[in-house]
Design goal:
Blueprint lengths: L3 H9 L6 H13 L4 H14 L3 H12 L15 E5 L7 H11 L4 E5 L9 H6 L10 H11 L1 E5 L6 H12 L6 H14 L4 E8 L8 H17 L3 E8 L7 E2 L1 H12 L5 H17 L6 H14 L1 H12 L18 E6 L4 E6 L1 H13 L13 E4 L6 E2 L4 E7 L5 H11 E4 L9 E5 L1
Parallel strand pairs: 1-4, 2-3, 4-5
Antiparallel strand pairs: 5-13, 6-9, 7-11, 8-10, 8-12, 9-11
Helix pairs in contact: 1-3, 2-4, 2-8, 4-9, 4-10, 5-11, 5-12, 5-14, 9-10, 12-13, 15-16
Amino acid sequence: MMRMYDIILKKREGQELSTEEINFFINGYNSGAIPDYQAAAFLMAVFFRGLNDRETADLTMAMCDSGDRAELSAIPGIKVDKHSTGGVGDKTTLILVPLVAAAGAPVAKMSGRGLGHTGGTIDKLESIPGFNVALEPKEFIEQVRRVGAAVVAQTGRLAPADKKLYALRDVTATVDSVPLIAGSVMSKKIASGADAIVLDVKVGSGAFMRDNNSAFKLARAMVDIGNKVGRRTVALITGMDQPLGYAVGNALEVIEAIETLKGQGPDDLMEICLALGATMLLLAGKAGSTDEGRKKLLYLLESGKALEKLEEFIAAQGGDPSVVREYWRLPAAKMTMDIPAPASGFVQAIHAEKIGRAAMMLGAGREKKDSPVDLSAGLILNKKTGDVVTAGETIAVLHTNNLSSLDKVGKIVQSAYAFSEKRPELLPLVIGSVQ
């Protein structure tokens, strides 16, 4: 008879676990038969001893099979999904869903809400008046068939064991383990039903992975899992040493995403979207190469077809498509405050996590999972890395309804900026890929 005690001991001693032992743990913890204290001990053993490729794949599939799986076979074509490991100002999904759908690749996407200093796609979409993120499965599939795109909130029925384990990892200092992160991300992506997956693995001061080696290691683990279970998977490692674009905060990011689909978005955001989107088209069979995919995307942006698809997508999910041209329909904060530069010179760096924390304190993010979010709150950066600044010049504008934290937030934003006498060398946005 299998016992959790023996499985914990075996992993503590650095031994390889069998598929049956991993299934026993996930099924037992998901059902409540295995208590939190034994699961916590197991997670700590994995944190220090690790899992090999086969164990990681088994853990992923056990979590994936702990709940429902989305059935997307009724949607014709290769369904392609995109997942970001989280960053500050990362509104790429808002741009890529209509853009890739306009190229003929069906995008049936399940997304999450923001937590901590990283934003969530669902919160951003909910800042559009009327937008419904809770479609029934039949409605979801029918919309993708008709429009080519749909985005819904992940349900509790999707990989519930992962949801339960993640909450435990969060309070037991076992979050930053590559096999546990890889298993968590891929269990949800596989359960979501896509045929192909493009992963955006962020690295830098605003990302979970702070150095390139860790980012490539995580990317390799996730790609191997995807490919092993029959999902064609590619990961791009992209920089998050400063926020992506200029806007941080839900409604503010929606505006910047719309501007990008109008061909007027920030260069860094456009570059990341073209790289990810071209890879999505390649995996979906809508381009023979990423170069061809990139050209298709640029045509869709320049011709206005991507913007038309955004309007169609918003309307299909009950949202008000007129927000695409009338930004005043989106939530707006009652107060704005300019933040002056504390010094002159070139912007040497912007600590992305500090900017994300500032946005959260203004009301744009959640400290806890059940914290309310102010969809109008956030900030706009006026200056990015490499820009010239004079002391006293506005480097950022805060948008908030929470007046009590303004001074404190202003100081955090100022401390996020580093200045130098020489123009810094800008790091590449797309650092590499794993496939």
